[in-house]
């Protein structure tokens, strides 16, 4: 579809009949233009946009550190920095990417923007708390970044004790910053749960909620249930570092493995905080671009909840080599594989949706294809590393690095970019250039594979993670990986350019995809209180597409 | 929703925020939010309980001996004080529902006094420990119990009671706000008591956590 053919005539969108004038109702973007009207807003849409600005900035910071790592690893010996700097750089990269980008990215930006729209609500349940969680996030980020710039730390993003209790680098402010960010995560999660329970418009029952809402709901449950535990752990390690508490220090009778248990009790579910929203985005996109109702709606909804649930019982697979009993290792291995089963349910339903759909191959759909590949491939390597006998040699090698980048980063980034392109017209009422969208999608998917497939190989050959120097024989694969990373970076630069261009000069559009998602029932960009005039009614299920060519049989997939 | 806005001077009542469909829903949302928040608080302490359980399992004798060194009388008094304060906090909600704002204020003042009492007793317990040297981590110099794991017991003791005390202080702040509002503004009534109720819920949590901590630390 070319952008020009897709400008929806005002009034063509259901629910717009009464209010076919964009001009008379200021959108949320133009309703108040002072700096204060943004900084003190309680509008979930503006809060989402502000999150977007910050999160993209942190993504840039994390990305620059990623490139520094890759450049350093171009040669077996020292390349551009010394060993200590290298330790600090990969720690910074991990912390910024995980705590400041991946965890909040989709829920805080798109969840904030879309959840009320998808529920036909005027806002989230606690708008002021929502604003607070943004500033709490920024305060935490400020704390952490301040600590990183004033000394930095070399523990890796996992803060393993006893090392993190003894290292002379500045651990405490960063740990405390992460604790504060966790607070923000809890507040957002609470807000989303309460919103989903209490703010659904008449007509939206639980099983008429868009799948994105289900995914956000499941994510919020994990956030609320897991984050407090790591909050406590971060506090204890901070105290351990400052006062030598001895909780996790063998020298004082403590147990470092207990730290690992508590850490992974959060951090394993945390990886689902990152991918579940991605799954939600993909469910929306696959149905919008296949022009079909999602195949197996209930199975997709329940599997989100299922992943959230079993995600809590899989943490032990990070400790296969920490002296765990064989029995425990076996149990944790099997429980981990259950996650794979739930993910497979989703994958089959997405593929079932595409099957015989009227597929429209646009940028978001291109990212869906990339996403499917990363999820399936990364998920299968997950099953492989959850097999104890295989994980013992692979543990702490680049194989694990490649596994989690494929599934976690690959899938999340694909979904993030898909969401960005799919909802860009919703958020700004402007359209970007599809041709450039497809080019950059191709570059990014290619670059991603080129970066991490060599890492599977080099890890399998035995190269450990987090090492500054390596034997000659690993160099070719490392160079390949760095080349892939450059391609990836190039793709991101292109996106930044054409989206900025579209923001300013883009064509006015309303619903370029003719999407039937609930969020498109209002204007693009939406007015301040989301709907003008009477609240839209919701007679149909979400993702309700009827293909005129084969109308019969397609609509009753649920 | 303009019909819901309260004009100044009319009967005091809760304000309906523009984004809620009705007062019912708004109250439901506030309560659900509070329950979720309390759940996260319990989970925060659950992490400490897990540490406690692990180390108690590893060092049973040291933990029994260390636990006996605590002052059971002071701990018991504190438990009674907190449970009583939970009762007055509940009474505040009861009076708020009846619109007896003065009584709400009185009850909250009683609760705050008992909270203060709790902290004073805790202070004397801490002072004694500082004196004999059962401080956590690097500052531990107590010679009385020569068992591996004893210092860890006191680390867990200080971590959990300090975190609890922090919650007492936060709870006192929350209650103080409701108190001022009850005395000054006096607009709590049968359909506007959410603030008192949420404050009291928080206070019950503070009480509940202590009810777990007390047998864990003092009685074992
Ligand atoms: C669905 C999305 C998934 C994400 C986002 C994800 C993410 C991650 C991350 C971040 C790590 C590395 C943590 C670190 O040490 O820094 C990791 C390791 C691991 N993952 Fe996954 N994973 C996913 C799926 C799976 C599945 C389905 C399984 C098993 C069936 C699995 C099994 C493992 C195992 C066993 C490890 C530890 C390997 C080791 O350290 O030796 N993962 N994963
Ligand atoms: Cu895991």
TrEMBL record, chain A:
GO biological process: aerobic respiration; electron transport coupled proton transport; respiratory electron transport chain
Membrane-spanning segments: 49-71, 91-117, 129-149, 169-194, 214-237, 263-283, 295-315, 327-345, 365-390, 402-424, 436-457, 477-504
Any GO CC annotation of this UniProt entry: membrane
Domain of life of the organism encoding this protein: Bacteria
Gene Ontology molecular function: any one: cytochrome-c oxidase activity
Region Disordered, annotated ranges: 1-28
InterPro entries the record matches: Cyt_c_oxase-like_su1_dom, Cyt_c_oxase-like_su1_sf, Cyt_C_Oxase_1, Cyt_c_Oxase_su1_BS
Alphabetically ordered keywords of this record: Electron transport, Heme, Iron, Membrane, Metal-binding, Respiratory chain, Transmembrane, Transmembrane helix, Transport
Membrane topology: Multi-pass membrane protein
Keyword Electron transport: yes
SUPFAM superfamilies in UniProt: Cytochrome c oxidase subunit I-like
Pfam hit, one: COX1
Subcellular location: Membrane
Major localization class: membrane
Domain Cytochrome oxidase subunit I profile residue range list: 38-539
Similarity comment text for this entry: Belongs to the heme-copper respiratory oxidase family.
Listed name of the protein: Cytochrome c oxidase subunit I
Species of the source: Corallococcus exercitus
Automatic annotation (TrEMBL), chain B:
Residues in Heme-copper oxidase subunit III family profile domain copies: 31-220
PROSITE patterns per record: COX3 (PS50253)
GO terms for cellular component: plasma membrane
Gene3D superfamilies the record matches: Cytochrome c oxidase, subunit III, four-helix bundle
TM stretches of this protein: 32-55, 75-95, 107-124, 156-180, 201-219
Membrane topology label: Multi-pass membrane protein
Record carries keyword Transmembrane: yes
One Pfam short name: COX3
Protein name (record): Cytochrome c oxidase subunit 3 family protein
